[in-house]
Amino acid sequence: MKQIRLEQVSRHFGKHFALHRVDLTFKAGSITAVVGANGAGKTTLLNILATLDKPSSGKVRYDTFSWDSFARRGRGLVGWVSHAPLVYPDLTGRENLTFYADMHGIESDTKACDAWLERVALLPAADKLVQTYSRGMIQRLTIARSLLNDPRLVILDEPLTGLDRSGRGDITALFKELRDRGKILILSTHDLHSLAGLCDDLVVLRKGKVAHKGNPTSARDIIATYEAHA
Amino acid sequence: MNKLLRQTLAIVRKDLRRELRTREITLTTISFSVVLMVFLKLAFYTRDRDVAMIFPGILWISITFAGTLAVSRTFADERETGCLRALALIPGTGFSLYLGKLFTNLCFMLIFEAVLIPLLSLAFKAPILTYPAPFFAAVGAGTLGFTALGTLLSAMLVHHRLREVLMPLLLYPLLVPLLIGGVKAVATLYDPGGEIDSAWSWIRLMLALDVLFLVGGQVLFRWVLRAIE
Q1: CB contact under 8 A, A103 and B7
Q2: Contacts of B80 (CB under 8 A, 6+ apart)
Q3: pLDDT at position A193, please?
Q4: Which is it for the CA torsion B204, B205, B206, B211, positive or negative?
Q5: Which of these, A229, B41, B52, B168, could form a disulfide with A211 (CB 3.0-4.6 Å)?
Q6: CA B57 to each of CA B37, B181, B186: distance values in angstroms, whole numbers, following the listed order
Q7: Nearest residue on chain A to B11, judged by CA atoms?
Q8: Which sequence spans correspond to the domains of chain B?
Q9: How many CB pairs under 8 A join A and B?
Q10: Parallel/antiparallel/unpaired status of strands A16-27 and A3-13
Q11: Cα atoms in the 13 Å half-sphere on the side-chain side of A134
């Protein structure tokens, strides 16, 4: 997938507009951060991009695919980290990943799962029940789950929640590696400091509209941009 | 391995593994079955010769009530963890999720029926092995139809606030034809003047309803999944 293009995309719930005439482009090999205050429309935007929510009007193009055809045929290309971990607490970390690998039809799933468990530093706890995991460990497992199927589009809603300093470093490095491999990464967060050196593009949403698009680099720039537009 | 089969087996394996650890569904349905059997024994304290009249009804009421406990929990795990949305993003789950949950529910139903039916047989002195083939065929056909419909309704109600109340309200009226077939088939076996062929006719009707519920369930589930994801 080379790019995703949104043209005049709106999503309303009754009379309330969660998104209003949004025009955006997300390119392969880039990390875009979507920020904004609560209720700005970040999660709605991410759900639309993940094909979990249909826009009320406007066009979303995934390369040449429309939103409808991508929702029918392209969902396997999406990796999604949401607010909720979307893993089973009564299963172990390894069992969770093996289950999702089987669902994706990934060959030699045990090897693939162990590789991901090692990548997110969970191999020593792989056979423990997820209900005994800390918040950070669950988040790392969630990220591994979302990347198991080698997605072209990775959507990350608050991906660094609960992670300690070293965990953040590991996961940030993983995101950069994915970007360098040509994936499209779109993340939303309230933790503006974590975006410095990570995101290539910044989109500020305000009351469902795009208030600013840019590519600030330092934490100071990002915070200043946010405060000026959010 | 075929992707549909692999996904279905993954769902069954995951649900059974989880059940082995928690024993939530098997313990509650078996306990409920025992309580129900005691209540029914007290309510229908009667002479042996009346068994033919009351046993078929008691059998199907017990299977339906205890079974409702099992099938209404079908998507509880997915609801509580939110995993339904992660599963919805995986291509092919519209078929495999229904089939997997159906097989899992059938396993739960067969486990509690293995306890319930001998208990009822002992309590009401109703011999179930006189005509084992039609008896177990009737129970099997009833269980399959009940599970096919219950699994679909459980998915439809997964996010509904009143799902525990709505489940029996929707499920029981739709089950009426199947239950009539089940009661008639079993009653024929206990009726001294009944003919076995007549029981098989009712079982064939039940099997036809099973096919209808299974095909309808499979077709409708894709739409349901899209609505609830």
Answers
A1: yes
A2: none
A3: 83
A4: positive
A5: A229
A6: 12, 11, 9
A7: A99
A8: 3-228
A9: 69
A10: antiparallel
A11: 9
Strand partners, A210: A205
- From the list A51, A85, A103, the residue facing B10 with the nearest CB is A103
Q: Does any CB of chain A come closer than 8 Å to the CB of residue B46? A: no
* Interface residue B91 vs chain A (CB under 8 A): yes
Cβ contacts (< 8 Å) between B229 and chain A: which residues?
52
Q: Which two tokens stand for residue B161?
A: 């606030």
Q: What average pLDDT score do residues A175-194 get?
A: 92
| Nearest beta carbon to residue A90 from set B18, B88, B89 | B18
- Domain span holding position A29: 3-229
Q: What is the pTM of this model?
A: 0.89
- Please provide the distance, in angstroms rounded to a whole number, between the alpha carbons at the two ends of chain B: 27
Judge whether A102 is closer than 8 Å to chain B, CB to CB: yes
The arithmetic mean of pLDDT across residues B184-193, rounded, is 87
Residue B90: which of A73, A76, A95 has the nearest Cβ? A76
Indicate the residue of B13, B18, B85 with minimum beta-carbon distance to A86: B85
Q: Total domain count for chain A?
A: 1
Measured CA to CA, the distance from residue B186 to residue B63 in angstroms comes to 13
The predicted model gives B67-89 an average pLDDT of: 90
Q: Token digits for B81?
A: 């963890």
